[in-house]
Amino acid sequence: MAYPATRSDAVVDTLHGEQVADPYRWLEDEKAPEVQAWMKSQDGFTRDALAKMPGRDALTKRFTELFYVDSVTAPFRRGNRYFYMRTHKDKEKAIVYWKDGESGQEKVLLDPNVMSKDAPVSLGRWVPSWDGKRVAFPVRPNAADEATLHVIDVDTGEWSKVDVIEGAKYANTNWTPDGKGFYYEWLPTDSSIPVDARPGYTTLKFHKLGQDPKNDVVVHERTGDPTTFLQGDLSRDGKYLFASILRGWSENDVYWKHPADKDWRLLVKGKGAKYTVIAWKDRFYVVTDEGAPRQRVFAVDPKKSERANWKELVPEDPKATLESVSLVGGHLALEYLKDVTTELRITTLEGKPVRTVQLPGVGAASNLLGLEDQDDAYFAYSSFTTPRQVYRTSVKSGKVDLWAKVEVPMDPDAYTTEQVFYPSKDGTKVPMFLVYKKGLKKDGTAPTLLYGYGGFLVSMQPGFRASILPWLDAGGIYAVANLRGGGEYGTAWHEAGKGAHKQNVFDDFAGAAEYLAKEKYTQAKKLAIYGGSNGGLLVGAAMTQRPELYGAVVCGVPLLDMVRFHLFGSGRTWVPEYGSADDAGQFKTLYAYSPYHHVRQDVSYPPLLMMSSDHDDRVDPMHARKFVAAVQNAKGNPAPTLLRIEANAGHGGADQVAKAIESSVDMYAFLFQVLDVARSDAGVAAESR
Predict the structure, then answer these.
(1) CB 631 within 8 A of CB 29
(2) N or C: which terminus of the chain has fewer CB atoms within 10 Å of its end residue's CB?
């Protein structure tokens, strides 16, 4: 393909005695006019190429039917008020609603569709006060992580002109019981602070409503360590304030105090373990993987909070991983994963089993959402072939009723889901879900899309994905591999895929591809791989390590230069997960798999569609730019390499439905073309119900 020209510079660093070439370093400076011109030409070239691919009209029609739907989330109850979100068939973004009492009149609270005339904005995590009179919410320009915190009066719908807080990138709002103020994490917006150092400047503050935020009191100073996160929490009764210092996703220290106290008290110093604390009626419930890779629960008396005095309430289950705990209706609600499918269990506050919540089927469910002293609770459920359903349950009786469900134009009975277990390179058994239309013939010809993530304790659960339906209707298989590095089997599973063990993740992924071919589901030229963020690193490494296994690659908002990732965006916060090239031993590991540094001139790579965003302030888009430049300029590679840049979008992409349709059409039109899926099959996707 006649790509836009990209120059190559003779940039070579000597790192720990190793000569490291970096010919496209100039593409790191996004603000440079030359880089802006390069981005514009690459994106224009890609969109021209994608626009010519057949099957787009059918895909657009089908995705429009699937994405523009009416839906509702499980509600939050605050006082006698209920808060929830709805999507609408004729709206681009979800709207926040509220009502007095469960049968009250529904009223609009926050509508991001009309918030800004100048540039697109997104809502962050909105939090109602305990009396339901006010809601704090972050506004994020261009769907980026950077945010400004606002407060709205629920009765009047007026935004406070005083309670406007810049630097809310990491802000989690914790209201006081009287609703007169809240604690939040604050990050300075001082441009003189290097971007990679900013996380270490996070402080925990208290904001009193009506007070100039510049006068907000700092209740916990910054750590000064950009590889850490500082997070605050306040018990519902306001008696206990917590501060957690997280080192990555595997370890944290927890401090606590009464808000009026001056000094913090250490609850626990994390040494290779993580801790989550829920406080209720002068008791701490501590969820931890300390000595229990699949997690367990302790009770702690604040007056005798030393570790030796902790009482185990819920022991570790050796066959299921405890994902989360909530305190609802005077009970503990425990969300487990058992071979990557959800179980919801209820126990007394002393850990005595009461029941397992009846779920509609094998799939993914949220934990119970409710209040500590209210019997009614809600949870969401879905599966690969069942759209989201919201259920209400009585904690006391166990009764479960359907509260709301999403109507999607599809026939769930047309598809089937299969779970298989395959061996990785070192013999480890790895689970994988396969979704396809019933009647599939295992003759090795089915186009297959293999998805993975493998990091940060994130579990890839079998929830509904409307975007895969046109692929399934065209005779395709959708596969999700539950790789090491995730949290599916607890801390040990995560540890086996992080840091010095990261190569296990890539081996697990290659093992999935080999299994799919061996068992005659597909073959290499019909197998596409897809991943985003850490999953983008995954498919980048898969592509450069084992290019012969794959027929196409879709890579989204990725990390790909693992030698310099820690110098950009939020990179230093990921050092506990990956390591850092500043350390000689860790550099050796990172450089050994860094995809950007392993693009070779003599290799024919699979066709690549790189999907990037122009306002991604989490994973710097320099990764996507440099990798695409390297692959396009690999002289032995004839396959198309395309860079698509989403405008006005952050790490999660643009949050308008129309933009989601556009990106999905581009992705699947690309896959249909490069995998040579029959054009008539692509048309089937638009006509299926």
Answers:
(1) no
(2) C
d(CA 80, CA 100): 6
Q: How many CB atoms lie within 10 A of CB 233?
A: 19
pTM exceeds 0.90 for this model? yes
Active-site positions read 533, 651
At residue 191, what is the residue type? S
Whose tokens are 């304030």? That residue is 241
Give the three-state DSSP class for 425. Answer: coil
Contact at 8 Å (CB) between 23 and 9?
yes
139-174 core/surface letters (b: 16 or more CB in 10 A; e: else): bbbbbbbbbbbbbbebeeeeeeeebebebbbbbbbb
- pLDDT per 10-residue tile (average), the chain, 689 residues: 96 98 98 97 98 97 98 96 97 97 96 86 96 97 94 98 97 98 96 92 98 98 96 98 96 98 97 97 98 98 97 98 98 98 98 97 97 98 98 97 97 98 98 98 97 98 97 98 98 98 98 98 98 98 98 98 96 97 98 98 97 93 98 95 94 90 98 85 38
* Residues 406, 388 contacting (CB under 8 angstroms): yes
**d(Cα 126, Cα 110) in Å, to the nearest integer?**
9
Structure tokens at 689: 């119900």
Q: How far apart are CA 373 and CA 22, in angstroms?
A: 59
663: enclosing H helix or E strand: helix 657-674
Residue count (the chain): 689
